[in-house]
Amino acid sequence: MVLPVMVKPYLDAFMRLWRLAVRPTRGRTALALRTAIVCMALVLIGEIWQLPMLTLLTLTLGALWQGNRVANMKISVMYIIFFSGVTGALYVGVATTINNFLATLIFNLVLSFVFFFLSTTTILGMISVIGGLILSYMLVALDNVQSGDSIARLVLSAWRVFLIIAGMMAFVGSCFSPSPEHVLTDQIIERLRLSAKCLGRRGEGRNIPQAWQDAVMDTVGEGVSGMFGMLGAATAEQRWSPEDLSYLRRAALNSFGILQFVERCLKPNAPISMEDCAYLAKRLEEAAECFETGGRPAETGTDQVCSGDIAQEMERLLNSLDQPLTAEDVQLPSSQSGNAAPKKKSGFFLPGAFTDPEHVRFAVKGTVSVCLSIITYKMLNWPGVHTCIITCFIVSLPTMGAVLDKQRLRIVGALIGCFMAMGTIVWLMPHMTDIAEIMLVMGVVIFIGAWVKAGDQRISYLGLQIIVTFTLADLAKYAPTTDLTVPRDRIIGILIGLAITYVVHTMFWPHSAMGGALQKLKALDGLLAQDITDWNHDQRMLQAARIQETASGAMSQLRQVMIEPAAMRPTKHRMRQYMLFLRRAAMSAGCLFGDIAASQQKQSLRLGQILKGGETASLKEGGGL
């Protein structure tokens, strides 16, 4: 009896990850298929032309490929501009440090510091990480090249690789990737269908599966920022009329409100009848089908059919789907007040790029990790473990919790990719006779990794690692790999890189994720304290979405805090207080809009009351860690 109790938490965590990995959201299969096709085409081009850095092509595309064509075009433009500068820096550095390992190492570390710093302080983000990864890998590889002409040709070939990757993202992404309007419509349909499934199940008197309940809670936590971001991208595309986008804005906001009420109906004792659930499920399916066929719900009138309060609120949201909603109508009063300072549009550098010392500390820690990896790689004289250098770039993050979380996903993803590579080498490679069969096998594995990557953000990195590890093992040469030592060496290199990164981030300026969690908690406390008495219904619903997003972000940060070393974590009692506040904040978000909110007395929930246990406690008193 003791063993099942000890195993149950791990089994529950595994089942949670499994449900996230296999959740069939709308558009996920198409995105994974597009990623697999583009990666296969790029690998085929690399094999034909025998391009350098063949193993890193899929890493770049897998990490940077986006789900809509506007994002792919923006990424490709930034990519080609940035990597043109990287190529020039690479040529100058190699030409001045040729046959001098110490000078090459210093040059490598200087550029690594720059790339790490740019990854957290600019809009480049992952592009800067990929740039540092590729440049460090090439500097280490070119260290053994003695001829200056050979180095120049390799550098030019690397630039050609960058151009091909940017071209694939720009042109293929523009032709085959959906528009932001299409992606937004899919998200609306997904929310309406998820609500319909849960209500239909409840209307039949059956229990709602745990996977559906998790999907509802996770989707509610996403709020509407991502959907409104798609609206902004669709507006920039200038292919859709403002009227059509205003109807989509209404549908996006109302779909969140409906799903918010559906979350309250997940409980067995929820005040909603089976008849109302069946009726609303049918209406939701009709609305989803209307959006799926390219239309929008027609005017349905204002007659109320449902009887319960929650059911009537959902019915009212459904009836108002035919009404447009402009950006001015949904703008919150707090941003319109004269006392509020207007927000400045962020340029290339993000706010606080040169004032927050944590950016410099993170860059130093990442550079030290790369330095130790290069020295270890050279001392071992083991070419197969070059993945230790790649690992330092991929898993380096500003907080300790994020580093540990990413390391776990990298280990699991790398093991899965390694086992797939070994299975391919042992059982499939001996029976393959042409390049088409090899590309088909690679496409299947890349599709699996891309499917996982297209899912929830908590496991998307695992899918990327499956792709990277498999291609690093099976694309080691311009020929089919038949040696099992190749995937073995890749795994050993990854483990070496993980160990170095862990030691460096633990020894030098360990930064806990609790700082970011406290910022989220303070922001959530401020949102809950705002007076929304004079706000309209849409503004209240948008405020509820902001509260849900902030609470979800704080919960994600606290999950990372839980896996940090014990000395960096707050006490268990304090963690329970934070979790209690987040749960109550999420519950109160559903009471901010609709007639239910108007009929209830407004109660201000403050974090300090939970931390201090009194009515006058402040956030500062309870938040010091």
Automatic annotation (TrEMBL):
The superkingdom listed in its UniProt entry is Bacteria
Keywords in alphabetical order, please.
Cell membrane, Membrane, Transmembrane, Transmembrane helix
Instruction: Write down the membrane topology.
Output: Multi-pass membrane protein
The record's annotation in InterPro entries points to: Memb_transporter_dom
Main subcellular location: membrane
For the Integral membrane bound transporter domain, which residue ranges apply?
Answer: 374-503
Localization, UniProt: Cell membrane
Q: Where are the transmembrane segments?
A: 31-51, 71-94, 101-118, 124-142, 154-173, 382-404, 411-429, 435-452, 459-479, 491-510
The Swiss-Prot or TrEMBL record describes its family as follows: Belongs to the YccS/YhfK family.
The protein's name: FUSC family protein
